[in-house]
């Protein structure tokens, strides 16, 4: 049996066709590790979203923004009860001007500020090329002052800025490409399995009548209904996760609500 046939045979039959397509779109967006929740927190216990814009693998604004929301929601699942913020760690490895989408950047700013106010604790831009400074000048007007003041530029060849990394992260856990000592790197299959476990855990919580959620479950709970999503992704069956690591989006309605009204097409 081919991997495509196997994937089709193991789809969750409880999902509508639109939900199944959304599941495949998210899986395809995740393939290169362009955005993922790290398997470690910073020294304050805040979840870390690693972003690698140079690893972009799709042209769909809608798919990219919806995957960002998916990752944001997953990071919120891993907040401790004494934490309300996360860390964004942006790795510019492989980045070029061709990686830029002003439209995606604008909508990312809207998502962050309209739906996740004060959720960003700090944003680290790691080794941005010189040319990025011009792009940053264009981006700043999209951001509120309290947001862009949380952004820090860090360069591996600058000991002073490198101290920011040392102050925020445990270097034994941080990826070597980001100034740490961990050489494990991004493992797509391991990430897919973790996302599947998280999705099941969140789904079980949302479906339960539990009045006292576990410490690491979302602060913001939503009803688990799932309306149709707008799709313009380039995803295909080949692009989805294998049956071993197939991930079901935990809350498709949440993704749809937080992208509704944005100019994504």
Features:
alpha/beta; disordered N terminus; 265 residues; globular; 5-stranded mixed sheet
CATH superfamily: CRAL-TRIO lipid binding domain
Oligomer: single chain
CATH-defined topology: Phosphatidylinositol Transfer Protein Sec14p
The tally of beta strands, per DSSP, is 5
Supply Rg: 18 Å
Report the structural category: alpha/beta
List the helices and strands in order: HHEEHEHEHHEHHH
Order of strands, main sheet, comes to 1-2-3-4-5
As a percent range, the share of helical residues equals 25-40%
Major sheet: 5 strands, mixed
Shape: globular
CATH level 1 class label: Alpha Beta
Instruction: Please tally the helical runs, counting DSSP H or I stretches of 4 or more residues.
Output: 9
Query: Roughly what is the average pLDDT, rounded to an integer?
Result: 76
Q: Beta-strand level of the residues, as a percent range?
A: 5-15%
CATH architecture: 3-Layer(aba) Sandwich
Give the terminus-to-terminus CA distance. 36 Å
Count of the separate structural domains: 1
Q: How would you describe this protein?
A:
Helix content is 38%, strand content 11%. It has 265 residues and is of the alpha/beta class. It has a single domain, classed as 3-Layer(aba) Sandwich (Phosphatidylinositol Transfer Protein Sec14p). Strands 1-2-3-4-5 form a 5-stranded mixed β-sheet, sandwiched between helices. The protein is globular and about 50 Å long. The N terminus is likely disordered. InterPro entries: CRAL-TRIO_dom, CRAL-TRIO_dom_sf, PI_Transfer_CRAL-TRIO. Pfam families: CRAL_TRIO (PF00650).
